[in-house]
Design goal:
Elements: E1 2-3, H1 5-11, H2 23-33, H3 38-44, E2 48-51, E3 54-55, E4 72-75
Parallel strand pairs: 1-4
Antiparallel strand pairs: 2-3, 2-4
Length: about 80
């Protein structure tokens, strides 16, 4: 998982490994890993996600599969876009 901008600041890291078969599982693991950082969960609620360069969009995160070695980009809203 790669965190950008406010997500990176809230997580306290730029990236971290994750073993999950869906985007929902990955987000659950990330929330648990950063449970001591309440700002992280708040920022995550406003983020969009790319999985191997493709937007997850409004799809149910449980329906977004992650292949082994997938890259999940966690993108908070950006100004001016």
């Amino acid at each position: 998982m790669r965190y950008w901008a406010a997500a990176k600041a809230a997580a306290g890291t730029e990236q971290e490994p994750c073993r999950a078969s869906t985007l929902a599982e990955a987000m659950e693991q990330a929330r648990a890993r950063h449970a001591g950082r309440p700002r992280f969960a708040q920022v995550l609620g406003h983020c969009s996600f790319l999985v191997d360069g493709y937007q997850a969009g409004d799809r149910d995160h449980a329906a977004v599969p992650l292949r082994e070695g997938a890259t999940v980009e966690v993108l908070p809203p950006f100004a001016g876009g």
